[in-house]
Amino acid sequence: MQPTSFPAIALGLAALSVLAGCGRQAGPAARAAAETDAGESGYVAPPEVLRLGAAPGGRIELFGSASPRARVRLATPGGETELAVADAGGAWRATAPAAARARLFGLSVWDHGRVIQAKGYLFLAPDGTAARLRAGGGSEVLGGRGSGLAATALDCDEAGAATLSGRAAPGDAVSLRVDGIERGRASADASGHFVLVLNQPLAAGRHEFDLAGARGEIRLDASTRRPAPLARAPFQATRTALGWRIDWLTPGGGEQTTLVLAPQASAP
C-alpha cells in the first residue's frame, strides 16, 4: 500500500496552534462565558480527546475535555477544521467527516488572544484507528483494547530513542526484553496505561519484543527504521502488517516515528 500524505503545503504541524480562533466563531454569549470563566481562574487547561464514537455516514464523533466554556478547535495542516464549545463542566463534542485518507489534527483552545495547544496531535485513520501522538514518546491509542496486557504504540526518534506504550491492569508492573536483553520496566497508572522508556536506543532493523506483566506476556517482531524524510509534508502514514506507521514532525521540528500496533493475543 502506498503511503498516505498531504500534498506540498506551506503550513507545518508546528504552526497548527496559530489557527485557533479563525473560521467559524462561537456566539456572543458563549464567548462572554468563556472569557469570564478563564478570567476568574487564570488558568486554561489544554484540551484533550478522551474517546471516539461512530456517527452516520462514516463520520467520527470526538468527545473531550477542556476548561469550562472554552472554544475548542481541531485543524489539519491542509485547513480542515472542526470547532466546538465546552460546556460548564468542560466537556465538548465535535464530529469529524468521513475520509479515505489518514489525518492528523492539531487540538487547541483560544482565550484572550492566547492559544493553548494540546500536548500532542490526534491521528485518525480511515479504518477507525485513533491515537494521541506525543512528542518524545508515550503515544496513546484511543478506543477499546480489552482489559488484558497489550502493547499499543512504539515511538522512535531520529537518534533511536524509543518508548513502548500499552495497557495493563492498574498498578501492574511490566518489563520489556528486546532481542533477549532487558530494556526497561514501568508500572500502569490508575487508568491502566503505561509508558516504558527503553534504556538504550533502538538500532534500525528487525527486533523481537517480549513484554511481560503479572497477568500475561506479549511477543511481537517489529522492524524499525529512522523516520522517513518529510520535506514536502508534515506527516506520512502507511498501513503495515503490525498496524499503522506514522512519520511526523513534532512541534519542536524534530522527526519521530510512531507505530500504532494492532491488538495482540496475550499468553498466560
Could you explain the architecture of this structure?
By secondary structure, the protein is mainly β. The protein has 2 domains: 121 residues, Immunoglobulin-like; 128 residues, Immunoglobulins (Immunoglobulin-like). The protein is 5% helix and 48% strand. The protein contains 1 helix and 20 strands. Strands 1-18-19-20-11-12-15 form a 7-stranded antiparallel β-sheet, with no helix packed on it. A 6-stranded antiparallel β-sheet has the order 5-4-7-8-9-10. A 4-stranded antiparallel β-sheet has the order 14-13-16-17, with no helix packed on it. Strand 16 and strand 17 form a beta hairpin. The longest helix is centred in the first third of the chain and has 14 residues. The radius of gyration is 19 Å and the shape is globular. 39% of the residues are buried. The N terminus is likely disordered.
Under CATH, the topology of the largest domain can be stated as Immunoglobulin-like
Instruction: Tell me the structural class.
Output: mainly beta
- The CATH H-level homologous superfamily of the largest domain: Immunoglobulins
Give the topology string: H per helix, E per strand.
Answer: EHEEEEEEEEEEEEEEEEEEE
Strand order of the largest sheet: 1-18-19-20-11-12-15
The second-level CATH architecture of the largest domain is Sandwich
Number of domains: 2
Essential attributes:
5% helix; Immunoglobulin-like; 1 helix; 6-stranded antiparallel beta sheet; mainly beta; 7-stranded antiparallel beta sheet; disordered N terminus; globular; 48% strand; 268 residues
